[in-house]
Design goal:
The structure is a homodimer. The first copy, chain A, is an alpha/beta fold. Helix content of chain A is about 45%, strand content about 15%. The longest helix of chain A is centred in the N-terminal third of the chain and has 22 residues, at about 5-25. At the A-B interface, strand 5, helix 3, strand 8, strand 10 and helix 5 of A face strand 5, helix 3, strand 8, strand 10 and helix 5 of B.
């Protein structure tokens, strides 16, 4: 068994032992959980993601919480079983498996999701390490990267060459904890849309610039963020992000990828990508590249003002404040495909190469 | 150039020639387009998809339609260029490329999308064959299949073995027209969720049952449907569909995959999968496998009643009417993950193998 798995099993058994010992001594069993709320979150540029401030609550067994208490222990046991049988369970499957827990069965999936969040926070880990997984798209990859996985049937090492998918791509699984990587690439380029991803594949971009292309498909899923993070950490690669130039691209996609989100602060440690830098499309690009734009919608304007006022990440970074202020003054947003005005190949032959010569000018 | 591409180029040039000849004779140029509306749709079990009835309209150049007329001709020229340069353009990119058409530029992307639909219908083809593509997820594949693509750089044949991706998968590109296949699989199993797809991969299902797994990720995209259709046609494989047992799974996913949809009738010929059969989860399964259920929502009930009354596909197939009637009488829906109540491996070891012994009992 891998070291990480042994470590998780050890933590699960540790929790169980404490509960057992208190019961043996005729004391009420208890569990300690970090407080998961925005009021318990802090932001510092280093390490670069939202963190829990350390407040925690102790859950002692009472008549009122006996069901949740039992469910939490059963969920820990389920995780231990999963790791031993080398299986993963989606949140939905976990909910249905718990149908057989008698009085401790969940009334609805929201209940089991909450208990799973508790277990994650309690063990200071992410649910993927507990062999739970989300039912979501993990993003797509093409470029100078060999992903090293295992053949489940033989246990043999499996090398997946992401430069040999033709017009297709490697689809990232929902759990990436056990993947390893081999690459000589110089950077990772994470793009918002599958359309732009396929454009760059078609233009042989990753060949010419020795990089790894990742299609996030909108707001990156946990799996996609974790994949980029692990790859960037292990191979010491810079990560450049290429989205539409609008509040959705800036905050929902880029900010989430880089520093995480407020309401999942206990997880940002695993899922943020602090090395990410914003390549474009910026408000400055609109004038520099004479790009067609669309007027900002009310919702865009509102989101931008709100971020200027309340988002600790934006408040910390002056260049971002300048960019948002410029966007609001211009009153327009710009799509990454707008570069096609200058021809389909322009983005790969002109725009990106020019940008990549001045990576220090990327937004933080 | 491939034969299909030559054929499309020939049709584009044919249209252009007609317009040119009429102008040379000082006649007003015109184009003939099939009427794209539900009133021009018919359904027959053979060939098994919604078809256009043949009504068409002639668009003659007038002062009022001069812009649309010009845009349609420019769009035909763009397609010809794309085929010659071996590039593909998303709908969004096409809209931006048209920024340089002077007075014929589009005011909004909806306009250019409509002209693209016109061009598709006029040439009796699908936009993928015109080298246009949607910006959408194409589905994921794992199993006993080798996809044959080309290396864009060398032009050499590329073999992609979908049984060698470990926990990952092959991500289907948005344009699949030029892919070829090699397989000894016995059937294709198309599943609704990525969660169930990964479950079956983890249980070695495709090895044990010699099949190809496709994750549709909800309602299958055009690329996903076209991929399944081409693979099933060329390799003469049956297609079994495994979704949640609710109106969304029955109609939005299964019915769309099998016969297409009413408002895109000129395309169903390419995107439907008439050989698809519905494996489950059915209302009968709820009692037979003692599955946990959820009450039907009002929107479920409404959609089901509407389909019984108005959907020509459901009206044609008695077994479907019986299933829907049973669902409405029971008042419940069931998720495919509900089988996890009997253990994570149950779906792969018990449910599917039992079902696959009686494929004649699948819903049509």
């Amino acid at each position: 068994m891998a070291k990480e798995h042994q470590d998780v099993i050890e933590r699960i058994c540790g929790e169980a032992r404490e509960v057992y010992q208190r019961i043996s001594k005729k004391q009420k069993p208890q569990m300690r959980l970090p407080l998961r709320a925005l009021s318990n979150v802090k932001y510092k540029p280093d390490p670069g993601y939202f963190q829990l401030s350390g407040k925690s609550k102790v859950r002692t067994l009472t008549v009122g919480n006996r069901k949740t208490f039992a469910q939490t222990l059963k969920m820990l046991a389920m995780s231990k079983d999963l790791i031993h049988t080398k299986r993963h369970s989606t949140k939905r499957e976990a909910y249905y498996q718990a149908y057989n827990w008698g009085q401790a069965a969940f009334a609805a999936q929201e209940e089991s999701d909450t208990v799973m969040d508790d277990v994650e926070a309690m063990l200071a880990t992410n649910r993927e390490q507990l062999n739970f997984r989300a039912d979501e798209h993990g993003g797509e990859v093409a470029g100078e990267l060999v992903v090293i996985d295992k053949d489940r049937r033989t246990g043999k090492r499996l090398e997946i060459d992401c430069a040999r998918f033709g017009s297709g791509a490697y689809s990232v699984p929902t759990v990436v904890e056990d993947l390893a990587f081999r690459t000589a690439a110089k950077f990772i380029l994470a793009v918002e849309t599958k359309g732009m991803f396929e454009r760059l594949v078609e233009e042989d971009f990753y060949d010419k610039h020795h990089c790894i292309l990742v299609s996030m498909g909108g707001v990156p899923s946990r799996a996609c963020r974790r994949f980029i993070r692990r790859l960037a950490d292990e191979k010491r690669l810079p990560v450049y992000v290429f989205t539409d130039g609008d509040p959705y691209g800036y905050f929902n996609i880029y900010r989430t990828l880089k520093v995480g989100s407020g309401n999942a602060a206990h997880l940002n440690e695993y899922f943020c990508v602090p090395q990410a830098r914003y390549l474009g499309v910026t408000p400055d690009d609109i004038t520099e590249y004479k790009l067609p734009t669309h007027p900002l919608k009310d919702v865009d304007r509102k989101r931008a003002m709100d971020a200027m006022k309340n988002d600790p990440f934006i408040k910390h970074h002056k260049p971002w404040q300048a960019a948002i202020t410029k966007m609001l003054a211009m009153g327009v947003r710009v799509e990454q495909q707008a570069l096609a005005k200058h021809g389909l190949e322009y983005v790969a032959r002109e725009y990106l190469p020019r940008k990549l010569k001045q990576t220090d000018k990327f937004l933080p």
